[in-house]
Amino acid sequence: MDLDSAGAKISMTRTREAELASSELGSQAHTAHGNPRRRLRVLIVALNYAPEITGNAPYTAGLATGLSDRGHQVRVLTGLPHYPQWRLAPGYEDREVHRREFIDSVPVSRLRHHIPTPPTGRGRIRMEASFGGRVAVTRWPSHDVLVCPVPGLLPTGLCVGRTKYRRRHAPVVTWVQDLYSLGVVETGFLSGRPARLTGALEGQILRNSDAVVAIHDSFKSHIVNNLGVRADAVEVIRNWTHLRPTELSDRNATRSRFGWRNDELIVLHAGNMGVKQGLENVVATAQLAAASHANVRFVLLGDGNQRSHLEQLGAGIPTLQFIRPLPTDDFRSAMAAADILLVNDRPGVGAMSMPSKLTSYFTTGNPVVAATEACSTTAYELAATGAGMVVPPDDPRALLDTLTRLAANGALRDTLARAGRQYSATVLSANHAIDRFETLLTRLTFQRNSAAQASKGTFHQ
Predict the structure, then answer these.
(1) Of 368, 363, 356, nearest to 399 (Cα)?
(2) How many other CB atoms sit within 10 Å of the CB of residue 197?
(3) How many CB atoms lie under 10 A from the CB of residue 430?
(4) The CATH number of domain 251-426 is 3.40.50.2000
(5) What is the per-residue pLDDT for 13?
(6) Is the dihedral of CA 80, 362, 273, 201 positive or negative?
(7) What is the predicted pLDDT for the residue at 451?
(8) Is the CB of residue 304 less than 8 Å from the CB of residue 280?
(9) Residues 246, 424: contact at Cβ < 8 Å?
(10) How many whole angstroms separate alpha carbon 92 and alpha carbon 80?
(11) pLDDT, tens digit, 9 for 90 and up, residues 161-193
């Protein structure tokens, strides 16, 4: 299977090398006129991609589109859209092993793979292995640099292994969105020797990457201190806000469309309904609210492998509502029309990942409440932003009390909401993140080409 398209080969002249060297490889890869100084050929190999709207797919697609908009040649090799519902998305039911399409002008090649239903631990391993196996035997387009987001770890490991066996290989950047070595322990999937082997595999993959991008400082700390990756090989580039701030022209009408009364407190959790979210806590809190006649409605918006279980658990609770995944504009409107946005983590979970929903929440002008461990990445982020409050996980009474106190304090809600929007506009800028990626990819490519030129010169002497 050939993913290459016709195109002229790009070579770096000595003049261009001098320009890059004089910029110390850390400056913008754009000229004053906004044109790229060198057109990079970027290959992204990712299990998840658009049209998935949750998880790491929006960031992978955003990076691809952002680099393409800056004039770089970007190609994407990805899997089939299936997350978070763990079912094949409509329109992708054909049995083609290899499918091509364009998304936002970026060429996307999709490889068929196993989709576990329900997504058990073994099923997810099989999915990553099946996608990784197809990636390993597929012919890749010519590229200057390879970017591999994690999840999935197994496809990334196969990409690193395949690349390193080449005599002159392109640099590999592993983009860590989840830490498997923590995740298998925090979710209870593995313990003991199997968990240690997972950590050893993750460390081996990251140490053999040319660079590692971590989405949070706490991730970098674990990658360096526990997985043995050199600190200078790890760069922190934050996930950005991929949704525009929403200003509702008629908030009451929007609430009415979702069946929400104007006099009730709407507490909304948006995104995946999986094991690590531990949303049984939200169901229990809704039940407590109903028993105490609190004027609160809990809304679980999204899908996931635990949705059916949660619906059965919450059947008959009048203060609990489930909403299926919505189109992007309706999704933004629902978050903006709510009163408080909720993050919920299973007890013991918190260091393995950074909830992607936070970057969306901060754009809405609503405060955030997180039921999570005090040492979790979510708690760290809310403390840094000043955009929300933290309560212990799996404590329905504490969660309900905090929500009702916050509902009664309009000044505090406004303060938290303003802090979230300010943080979103400054720290979580998409342009800033893509600037950082562009600089990193340019530097790695220049270093690899310089090393190849030096080796060639030594050989001819």
Answers:
(1) 368
(2) 13
(3) 17
(4) yes
(5) 31
(6) positive
(7) 75
(8) no
(9) no
(10) 7
(11) 999 877 678 999 999 999 999 888 877 888 899
Instruction: Confirm whether 34-240+430-460 and 251-426 share one CATH topology.
Output: yes
Global confidence as pTM: 0.78
SS3 of the chain: helix, strand, coil, percent, to 5:
45, 15, 40
Instruction: Determine the pLDDT at residue 455.
Output: 64
147 residue type, one letter: V
Question: Which residues sit opposite 100 in a β-bridge?
Answer: 109
Quickly tell me which residue has 């595999």 as its tokens: 201
Structural tokens at position 300: 């679980």
Contact between 84 and 303 under an 8 Å Cβ cutoff? The reply is yes
Nearest CA to 356 among 246, 434, 274, 260? 274
Domain boundaries, the chain: 34-240+430-460, 251-426
Three-state secondary-structure class, residue 22: helix
What is 34-240+430-460's CATH number, 3.30.450.40, 3.30.1320.10, 3.80.30.20, 3.40.50.2000? Answer: 3.40.50.2000
Helical pair 410-426 and 396-407, crossing angle rounded to 10 deg: 100
pLDDT of residue 352: 62
Cα angle: 98, vertex 113, 175; to 5 degrees = 95
Q: What parts of the chain have a pLDDT lower than 50?
A: 1-36, 459-461
- Compute the distance between CA of residue 343 and CA of residue 355 in angstroms, rounded to an integer: 8
Long-range residue pairs from 193-201, CB within 8 A, at least 24 positions apart, any chain: 199/226, 199/227, 201/153, 201/157
Q: Which residues contact 314 (CB under 8 A, 6 or more apart)?
A: 283, 286, 287, 320, 322
Contact 166, 29 (CB under 8 A): no
